[in-house]
Amino acid sequence: MGIPLENTRQRVVLLVVAFVVAAILIFQAGTTWLADHRLESDNLGLMERGAALVPGNGDAWDRLGRVRQWDFVNSDLPGAIADYEKATGVNPRSAYFWMDLAGAYEAAGDASRAQDAYAHAESVYPASAEVAFHYGNFLLREQKYPEAYRELQRAVRADPKFLPLAISRTWRSNEDVDQLLTQVLPADADAYLQAVDFFASIRQADPALAVWQRLVSYGQPFPLRRAFPLLDELIREDRAYDARRVWREALVAAGMPHPTPANHSLVCNGDFARDFVNGGLDWRWNDRSGAVIGFDSDPAPHGSRSLRVDFGYGSNLAVDGPFQYVPVEPSRVYHFHGYMRTQEITTESGMRFAIGDPNHAEAASLITDNFTGSHPWTAVEGDLATGSQTHFLAVRLLRVPSRLFDNKLGGTVWIADISLVLSNADAVWPSQ
After folding, report:
1. Fewer Cβ close by (within 10 Å): the C or N end of the chain?
2. What pLDDT does residue 19 have?
3. 3-class state of residue 326 by DSSP
């Protein structure tokens, strides 16, 4: 539908209207720009004048409130509360404005109004994991545990990224692992494993084992490596029985075979039938410059696969692996047996096996003969009596750095058929 412009008066009226509309739009745009410019300032006075230019803009009042509250030199908490209240008054549908107001009320010691503000935030955005998480933390601080746990569980179910913090804060609130299990953690393997990792990281084996048992009872599969933090803590605490049990359960959950060796050896994967898992109670190897590992199937003794380590003549290398932690009993005698072959191992400091207590340096240890140059497959063995405090032995390949000038390590070593069993002499050796 066209606009009639048949006479001069109509054209003038239209032109005036256009100019008025343009002027209003220009004024509004200029006001908005000036307000934003002032609000971006570091000057509180300018920011106040900027917010006053756009009194219907909740973001402006919320931003001003945060500046007042978090000014560590001249904090103005009452002023911040007033600004947050203006923000929620202008836009009561913003959960984030309500959360800022709740935090300010709590900082001012008004827990009742803080809880009311958090409840408003949740009613505005009931699906928000962030709102539920912050509300739950507030309730923890108020020691309203059942309500807090419900909020935290809502948060972690909506967004698993909040799970580590929910675990740590729930535990630190009252150190009750049962409440963590029944009221906060969702019933899935990853949630339980994150809880196990947390307890291992703070060196709390008992609650970690409680969570582990709940995890195992569900029969859910998970990768073997997820058990490594707990096993490392159990080794550190000398809890051999628990470590052996957790290791068996972890192998089952990972779907890995774990046959008992025919000779009842305590060494896991002593025939190197599978590659290293590099943790737990299996072999560990830390990659290092100057040494490369591999596996050979022939000509190891008894046709078993052997481990090969090649040295590249580049440095006077200290070798302390591969190694494995083996759970044992205190005050017992164990018999170590293995095979070693070397080819052109340089320097006077060659390759040995070393067995000792990783947690008690003063305990008895066994170091086998030094192999340098070239040797065919040779059986290496010896007995070791554990001390009264020994619950683990570390079995490792060892080479001490040479003291000679021409000390670059080169050559190759093979090892195979590693075992550690209770000795027949155990009945007659004195306990230590």
Report:
1. N
2. 52
3. strand
